[in-house]
Amino acid sequence: METLVDVVLLTFLVVIAIAIVRTKDLLAVVMLTGIYGLLSASFFVVLDAVDVAFTEAAVGAGISGLLMLAAITMTGRTEAPKRHKPLLALLVVFVTGGMLIYGTLDMPYFGSFEAPVHQHVAPRYINDSMQEVGVPNIVTSVLASYRAFDTLGEVAVIFTAGIGVLSLLSLPQRRRSYRLDESKKELMHEQHMVVRIVSKTLIPFILLFALYVQFHGDFGPGGGFQAGVIFAAAIILYAMLFGLDTAKRVFNQTLIQLIAAIGLLLYASVGVVSLFSGVNYLDYNVLADDPVAGQHLGILLIELGVGCTVAAVMIIIFFNFVGRREAQQDANEQNSTELNNSHELKSTELKSTELNNTKQNNREGE
């Protein structure tokens, strides 16, 4: 039965991947990508990788779709037609894929008990992590303690992505009024009233669930990455329903950028404290008198840093995407207004000239 479920899920994944490649409508591509993420999460659940499934569901089927929706509002919904056939690129893909497949021939069979990872690494984590780290969730002990330096690199990559988006898409700071006239306020409250009321009720529970995922990662699936994405999704939902200007009034952009940096610095600072205490970088045993208590404290601090950075970067990316789109719309409206004013001015001047010419002709006739 398990094999049948695996075959069905993999078949769906292949079919959806082909559909994503063939579809020209970018909105449909975003929707298919979300479905692909949900199927991938289901496949990870079948493989008993619940933490990975949680991350895939939150990122692949959740926040990624929102960010891509914000991106296609700037690029347009339809894919541009291809002007040439990239045969050389296709050849490179086939050659690279063939080399990768050839390289896997010397690897152990998938799930083989004789694989080195099942003979040395996995038994160490399974047998000794509870005594050394004291965290019931082995995945958390591996990511936050044994491989904490790798996780620090991942957080640094996420922070760098946020800095890149800020550098490319950020708009100059301008003083602008957030006051809307009464007609626009009334129109905003009338649109999707039921969705707005329901969302305002759900957003506090979403934030509460994010905190639960953040601080319950030691005992079950969760942690800073998942919690940060869920927290950011709640704020992005608020921005989508009530407008970017309203969201910027509630969530200060400078503070969000500061939180993104503080999260990474908090993670790195825990390692600096360990280093100054005479042990290896990110060795939490010296953070408390009891080594296990030190491990708990270190994992709590770095997971908090991960959650802060991930949430802040996701919010930064979304706000900059949407802000750039609104700036483009404002520029187009301003150009259209100026063009209309120019046409009206020219029309007025032309009428004035014609009127003057008529008066002059009448005088000459008299």
Task: Outline the fold blueprint.
Layout: H1 2-22, H2 26-46, H3 50-75, H4 87-103, H5 116-132, H6 138-146, H7 148-169, H8 182-190, H9 193-215, H10 224-242, H11 244-250, H12 253-276, H13 291-365
Helix pairs in contact: 1-2, 2-3, 3-10, 3-13, 6-7, 6-13, 7-12, 7-13, 9-10, 10-11, 10-13, 12-13
Gyration radius, rounded: 28 Å
Determine the mean pLDDT. 83
Strand content: under 5%
The outline comes out as extended
Q: SSE string, helix = H, strand = E?
A: HHHHHHHHHHHHH
Derived structural class: mainly alpha
Q: List the uncertain runs.
A: 175-181
Output the number of helix runs: 13
Biggest beta-sheet profile: none
Instruction: List the domain count as a whole number.
Output: 2
State the share of residues found in helices, binned by percent.
over 70%
| Straight-line N-to-C gap | 106 Å
Q: Work out the number of β strands.
A: 0
Domain MrpA C-terminal/MbhE: 113-170
Transmembrane segments: 6-21, 26-47, 53-75, 87-105, 155-172, 193-213, 225-244, 256-277, 297-322
Biased composition (Basic and acidic residues): 341-352
GO cellular component, one term: plasma membrane
